[in-house]
Design a protein that fits this description.
Shape: globular
Radius of gyration: 15 Å
Strand order of the largest sheet: 1-2-5-6-8-7
Protein name: DUF1801 domain-containing protein
Pfam family, one: DUF1801
InterPro entries: YdhG-like
Strand content: 15-25%
CATH architecture: Alpha-Beta Complex
Distance between the termini: 26 Å
CATH class: Alpha Beta
Number of helices: 4
Organism: Sphingomonas rustica
Largest sheet: 6 strands, antiparallel
Low-confidence stretches: none
Number of strands: 8
CATH topology: Aspartate Aminotransferase, domain 1
């Protein structure tokens, strides 16, 4: 079985954020870092070369594949912020109140935090963390 590429490392999260080229995305990354750390009660950890994760859990699929991943996280990509929020992107009614965004399987894509409702985003992050905590208690 292939080794996971996204594993926790000892990279400097603040230095990583400082290297984000776009000044708005850099400030948004700092804000997300504070928000997710506050919600999760966990420090930011660099996972792989470009994902900032909070907390950790071990998963195991019915196929037998297992591994470790972060409970919630984000990545300040070049064109947008990617928030990794397991199970929080499946409520279309709730997402309709968020503002300008798009979704993937368990990802929320946002150009800038100013485009979304902060209270709705906070709730989505909390919902994702609750779902992970429920499925994978510590």
């Amino acid at each position: 079985m292939a080794e996971a590429k996204t594993v926790p490392g000892d990279g400097d999260v603040a230095a990583f954020i400082d290297r984000v080229e776009d000044p708005v995305r850099r400030e948004d990354a700092r804000s997300l870092c504070r928000l997710m750390a506050g919600i999760s009660g966990q420090p930011a950890t660099l996972w792989g070369p470009s994902i900032i994760g909070f907390g950790q859990y071990r998963y195991r699929y019915d196929s037998g594949r297992e591994g470790d991943t972060f409970r919630i996280g984000f990545s300040p990509r070049k064109s947008e912020l990617v928030l990794y929020l397991t199970g929080a992107t499946d409520d279309a009614g709730f997402l309709a109140r968020l503002g300008k965004h798009r979704t993937g399987k368990s990802c929320l894509y946002v150009k800038r935090l100013g485009d979304v409702d902060a209270a709705v985003l906070d709730r989505l992050i909390r919902r994702a963390l609750d779902r992970v905590d429920s499925a994978y208690p510590s």
